[in-house]
Amino acid sequence: MSKKEDVVEKVSEKGEVKSLLAKLEEEGDIAADYLEGLLDITDLDGDIDIDVENDRAAVAIVGGNLTHLVGSDGEVLDALQELTRLAVQTSTGDRSRLMLDIDGFRAGRKDELKTLAQESADEVTETKTSLKLRPMNAFERKVIHDTIQTLGLTSESEGEDPERCVVIFPAK
């Protein structure tokens, strides 16, 4: 049985039993409808792709000229993601961890962050001292933490948003 077919059941407020995959697909559909409405209101073109990645719904808007929906450093994208999560939560009654990407911004940013994590891990390993990275949003911190973990080092977040950052520690 594939990971997507794992039968993780959740009982809804109405007493219905749904698999995790069905729940995440429903979140993706709700998010896609919400985003389609936003695109229609703003008269923007874009195709919406729905997927499930890492036990969360993933929605991407591609095509058209959508860079202004990302904003500089992704702040508009982050705001749209929060609005979309709220739309899903309003519909389902459950908190959503949905990830939104527009014009491949998050995918490209993820690659940059993996490179940063690798370079930072090399520096920590060489100097045997911890390294504090610049403040990052939750998405960026998660990519750094996941990458550092695969490299055999440890990391943790410290501080409060918007100044929350990752500290990477040398191996013991």
Write the layout of secondary structure elements.
Elements: E1 9-11, E2 17-19, H1 20-41, E3 47-53, E4 56-62, H2 75-92, E5 99-102, H3 105-127, E6 131-132, H4 138-150, E7 154-158, E8 165-169
Helix pairs in contact: 1-2, 3-4
How would you describe this protein?
With 172 residues, this protein is α+β, with helices and mostly antiparallel strands. 44% of the residues lie in helices and 21% in strands. It folds into two domains: 3-103, 2-Layer Sandwich (GMP Synthetase, Chain A, domain 3), CATH 3.30.300.20; 107-169, Ribosomal Protein S8, Chain: A, domain 1. It contains four helices and eight strands, in the order ββαββαβαβαββ. Helix 1 (20-41) packs across helix 2 (75-92) and helix 3 packs across helix 4 (138-150). The strands form three sheets. It has a three-stranded mixed β-sheet with strand order 3-4-5, sandwiched between helices. Strand 1 and strand 2 (17-19) form a beta hairpin.
Structural class: alpha+beta
Query: Which sheet architecture does the biggest sheet show?
Result: 3 strands, mixed
CATH fold descriptor of the largest domain: GMP Synthetase, Chain A, domain 3
Count of domain modules: 2
Order of helices and strands: EEHEEHEHEHEE
So, the CATH homologous superfamily of the largest domain?
A: K homology (KH) domain
The CATH architecture designation of the largest domain is 2-Layer Sandwich
The helix fraction, in percent, is 40-55%
Any low-confidence stretches, pLDDT <50, length ≥5? 1-15
Please identify the top-level CATH class of the largest domain.
Alpha Beta
Distance between the termini: 38 Å
Widest sheet: strand ordering: 3-4-5
Beta content = 15-25%
Computed CA radius of gyration, to the nearest angstrom: 18 Å
| Strand element count | 8
Averaged pLDDT, please? 90
Report the total helices: 4
